[in-house]
C-alpha cells in the first residue's frame, strides 16, 4: 500500500539481475552457490570466514554482475512471493545429469512458471561417470522446457559445481537472459526493497541484508520494515567492507535497526523518525485488530 506507482520508463537504469537457485534435493544447489561465491573475480581473501548474509554478487571479467540469493530452494522463493516481494528475475534450475528430472525439479518448473520468471538450466554433475546430458535434456523437454538447442529459447549450460566447470558460462548465460529481459530499476527517490536475511551481531546490533529494488540507500536513512524501524548507521557490501551507498539489486548489510525485521519484509524509506514511528504504530494497531478478530472467531 505504501509503494510508489511504477517509475516512468525514462528513469530506468540497467541493474544486475537477481537469481534464485532451485532444483531437486542433492542435485547440487548448495555446492553451486558455494562455487559461485568463489567465482567472484574481485573477492578478497575473506573466504574462510564468510558469514551467511543471504545474497552475494558475482562480478565477471566482462564487467557484468549477477546477484544470487543465497538460500536455495522454493521455500525462500515462495515465502518472498507470498509477501508480494517479487525479487527474483531469473531461476537457475539445477538438474543433476546422473539423476535427471525429479519431483522437485518439476515443482521448481511449476513455481517459476507461476511467477512468470524465466529459467536458465544448469545441467550439473557432468563430471560423474553416470552423467548423461542428452538424456537430461530430453527429460527437460518432456517437462515443457523448450531448450535452445532444440528449437526453444531456454538456455542449458552443462556444469560441474564440484569441479567448478562451466560456471563462467553459466553466469554469462544469466547475463544474456537478463539483457533480453532488460532488467532495470529507478535509482532515485525513497528506497524500496526487501529483507533477505537478518541476524544479531555482537558489535553492531541487528544486522540485516537487504536487496534494494528502487532508490539508492545512504547512511542516515530512516527505514521501516514490517513493524521494525531504524536509522541506517552503517552499510557493508557482500565482502563486508564498509560502503556509503547501495544501488538497486546489490546486496547490502545494514545496521541501525531498533527491532529485528523479518525475512521477506518489504523495506521502505521514510523521511523522518516521526514518520517511521507513525507507520510502525499504525501497523502494530492493525496487527492487534486482526488478532482480536481472529480471537473472536
Ligand atoms: P542440494 O541438496 O541441491 O543443495 O545439493 P548439494 O549441493 O548439497 O550436493 C549434494 C551432493 O552432490 C554433495 O555430496 C555434493 O558434493 C555433490 N555434488 C554437487 N555438485 C556436484 C558435481 O558437480 N559433481 C559431483 N561429482 N558431485 C556433486
Automatic annotation (TrEMBL):
It comes from the Eukaryota. Residues 279-297 form a coiled coil. It is found in: Mitochondrion. Residues 14-188 form the Tr-type G domain. One of the essential components for the initiation of protein synthesis. Protects formylmethionyl-tRNA from spontaneous hydrolysis and promotes its binding to the 30S ribosomal subunits. Also involved in the hydrolysis of GTP during the formation of the 70S ribosomal complex. Belongs to the TRAFAC class translation factor GTPase superfamily. Classic translation factor GTPase family. IF-2 subfamily. This is Translation initiation factor IF-2, mitochondrial.
Amino acid at each position: 500500500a505504501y509503494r510508489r506507482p511504477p517509475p516512468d520508463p525514462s528513469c530506468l537504469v540497467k541493474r544486475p539481475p537477481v537469481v534464485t537457485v532451485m532444483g531437486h534435493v542433492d542435485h547440487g544447489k548448495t555446492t553451486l552457490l558455494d562455487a559461485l561465491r568463489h567465482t567472484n573475480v574481485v573477492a578478497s581473501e575473506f573466504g574462510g570466514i564468510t558469514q551467511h548474509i543471504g545474497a552475494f554478487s558475482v562480478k565477471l571479467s566482462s564487467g557484468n554482475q549477477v546477484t544470487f540469493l543465497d538460500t536455495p530452494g522454493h521455500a525462500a522463493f515462495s515465502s518472498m512471493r507470498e509477501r508480494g516481494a517479487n525479487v527474483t528475475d531469473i531461476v537457475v534450475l539445477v538438474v543433476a545429469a546422473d539423476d535427471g528430472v525429479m519431483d522437485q525439479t518439476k515443482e521448481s518448473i511449476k513455481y517459476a512458471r507461476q511467477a512468470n520468471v524465466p529459467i536458465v538450466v544448469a545441467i550439473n554433475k557432468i563430471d560423474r561417470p553416470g552423467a548423461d546430458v542428452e538424456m537430461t535434456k530430453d527429460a527437460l523437454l518432456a517437462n515443457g522446457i523448450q531448450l535452445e538447442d532444440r528449437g526453444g529459447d531456454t538456455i542449458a549450460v552443462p556444469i560441474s559445481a564440484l569441479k567448478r566447470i562451466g560456471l563462467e558460462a553459466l553466469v554469462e548465460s544469466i547475463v544474456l537472459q537478463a539483457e533480453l529481459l532488460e532488467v532495470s530499476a529507478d535509482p532515485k527517490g525513497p528506497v524500496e526493497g526487501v529483507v533477505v536475511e537478518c541476524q544479531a551481531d555482537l558489535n553492531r546490533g541487528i544486522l540485516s541484508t537487504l536487496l534494494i529494488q528502487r532508490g539508492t540507500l545512504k547512511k542516515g536513512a530512516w527505514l521501516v520494515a514490517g513493524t521494525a524501524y531504524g536509522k541506517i548507521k552503517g552499510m557493508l557490501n557482500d565482502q563486508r567492507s564498509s560502503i556509503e551507498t547501495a544501488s538497486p539489486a546489490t546486496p547490502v548489510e545494514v545496521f541501525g535497526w531498533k527491532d529485528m525485521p523479518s525475512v521477506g519484509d518489504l523495506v521502505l524509506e521514510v523521511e523522518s523518525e516521526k514518520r517511521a514511528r507513525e507507520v510502525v504504530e499504525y501497523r502494530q494497531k492493525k496487527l492487534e485488530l486482526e488478532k482480536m478478530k481472529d480471537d473472536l472467531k
